[in-house]
Amino acid sequence: MLSPKTLRAFAALTAWPLVLTGASGAVPAPTQAADAEAEVATDAPARIALADLARVHQIGSIDVSDDGSKVVYTVRSVHGDVTDRDGEVGYRTQLWFADLAAGGMARPLTFGSRGGDSPALSPDGNTLAFVRSGDEGREGAGSRQVWLLSLTEPGEARQLTELEHGASSPQWFPGGESLLVTSSVPESKLEGQPPFDYERPGRVFGDAKAKDDQEDEAAEETAAEDDAKGAPDADLDTLRRFLDGEEDDDTASVLFDLDFLGEQGLAGEARYAHLFRVDATSGEATELAGGWRGHGGARIAPGGDQIAFVGLPPVTTHPDRIQRSSIWLIDASGGEPRLLVDDQDWSFGSPRWSLDGETLYFTADDEREPTYAQTELASIPAAGGAWWRLLPKHDRDVQGLHVVPAAGGGEWVVFSSPSEGQQMTWGLSPAGELVQTLDRPGAVLSFEATPEVQVYALSTADNPGELFAVGPEGERCISAHHSDWLAETEVAPVQWRWTEAPDGTRVQYWVMPPIGAVAGERYPTVLSLHGGPMVMWGPGSFSMWHEWQWFCSRGYGVVYPNQRGSNGYGFAFQKGNYQNWGAGPCSDALAAMDAAAAEFDWIDTDQLFVTGGSYAGYLTAWIVGHDDRFKAAVAQRGVYDLATFFGEGNAWRLVPYCFGGYPWEPATREILDRESPFTYVADIHTPLLVMHASEDLRTGVSQSEMLVRALKVLERPVEYVRYPGSGHDLSRTGDPHQRVDRLGRIYEFFERYRSGE
Fold this sequence. Notes:
Elements: H1 4-13, H2 32-35, H3 37-40, E1 46-47, E2 58-64, E3 70-79, E4 90-99, E5 107-108, E6 117-121, E7 127-133, E8 144-150, E9 158-159, E10 168-172, E11 178-186, H4 217-229, H5 236-248, E12 271-279, E13 285-289, E14 296-300, E15 306-311, E16 326-331, E17 338-341, E18 346-353, E19 359-366, E20 376-381, E21 388-389, E22 399-405, E23 411-419, E24 422-428, E25 434-436, E26 443-449, E27 454-460, E28 463-471, E29 474-477, H6 483-486, E30 489-490, E31 495-500, E32 506-512, E33 523-529, H7 542-553, E34 557-562, H8 571-574, H9 583-599, E35 603-613, H10 615-624, E36 632-636, H11 642-648, H12 654-659, H13 666-675, E37 688-693, H14 702-713, E38 718-723, H15 730-733, H16 736-753
Parallel strand pairs: 1-30, 33-34, 33-35, 35-36, 36-37, 37-38
Antiparallel strand pairs: 2-3, 3-4, 4-5, 6-7, 7-8, 8-9, 10-11, 11-12, 12-13, 14-15, 15-16, 16-17, 18-19, 19-20, 20-21, 22-23, 23-24, 24-25, 26-27, 27-28, 28-29, 31-32, 32-34
């Protein structure tokens, strides 16, 4: 709930007085079950089932009208029966709407397979711009385009844009007569030469294209078709055209970029985000910013005369070798971009204009400590000058900036920060004071702040996500995506604790008991580990909500810690895993397990299990290579040999960032071998299930093959599961059938080794 202190903070943040009477708690969403409470009171509540994966809806982006009267947001969910092996299942993202002025509950705006996302309400709040696939038969068909839907007049949405390469990220100009959109243009469609080193010695961009001029017109006429296709036994230019055609036909893939791996295949052609201004009536699009430059995170100034965007710094180095970004400005009528802020030691993003357009707020990351430095809040005069770090002592990541008026003048900068298992919102006051504007057990998934209302999606231990609005009359839940279902379903509670590792490191962890636990009985318990490594878990971790609750419904307890290296505890704790991915985090995780077992007598220490994915797959393998307490373990999509990971994973920069060098350097190689679970494979005796998606190129698959092969040679109990056609995010966004299969197999494997089974 919102405490009176938090409500007072929000009152100061907004430009209106807030009535605190009766504002001691949230108003729960109405449920049909509430009307029938007497009838269901005697019935045993349902428990979370595997099939309930399809009932968990994810609230995404939110947009609130300028006057705070309307809100539109996205909801993503599984469509289809996940238990029907032959049925078609997938995901759909739909738009939902709530009339805040009328006090109404949210209702769906879109239906069917096309859905919609990226909502943007017009300045008057009467028209909604959003993105969905374009109509067949129109220019840009097959690409995602911007659509408009009237919220005051009946009728269907109409497609506004017809850009060849699609349109995304719609944003209204003041006045509502036009929109700013982004189109992702492939480099093969760009003119001229790249302004950076193309890193292909002996070749020039576009040199394989067919010549437009021929000295002999007769020869051009007779050889036009052969010239366009090229030929293998010809001059060099013609041969290059032939080879270029072979690439187009997928005969060969030619790679000369540093980052040549995507998520599930080789990296495709580079694309650049170009900015277009689109007339809201005719759909006519005018390019404002293009060329060999990406224009990300664009934001229109309050006066509509300038646009701020994020782009590469002004250097001639290949983009793959640049891990920092700068803030640029461009006139709303187009023209040459102007560099506003750049620093070789810092990377900047998320520009947001002050209310008067005189200042630009943005985020800043210290590139001297990649992956460890906390993202900061910064500002600079829009006219140029020195930039300032506004909250250097906050020691938490700053995410999702919003600028809103303050009572009595000035403005607040509102943002969210992860901290000790919670993701809450904070505000920088006009006086420069940091105030926590929302404090609840859980995680704010997304939020939008306006002068009249703050709307946020909140995930908690007992509900994976509802939408809330807080305004002059307090807080109100305005959705019922899960509340009706969960009113008749028993979910496990969560308790948080702190403990210390043997070296004195303080570790936060959470404990969930099995549902239906009987006093005096002891139950198997899963130690669930998070990946990242720089990630934070807590009671509002949406991606794990269904999995944890399902294990509790099957009679297992769950313990999940935030070991050193986790986000949400400041720079020092996050860097605690530098050159120390194994021993330190392992001791933290086991300390949490020991402390939980010492306090909660329902934990059966003879029936402990451990699992985790990505970095946590690494940590699972490390733990069972150094500790024999677990009955069985499941290592998912993990990294097991760090030197190999450098070559086969697209997240390869974690090697130099976290270990200080490269595998060919003797000192670094010694560290990588020391920190690799594969080094200790002969010490693994715990039954191990290894899971990997076959197209996972974030960590790479060969390391899991190495681990399994070694354990088979050693005649240790190991089983290998591969998921065809899926990538690293299978457990979160993968094929729903495979997600159900994955959970079922983990449980089945644990049950084989559960005492008495």
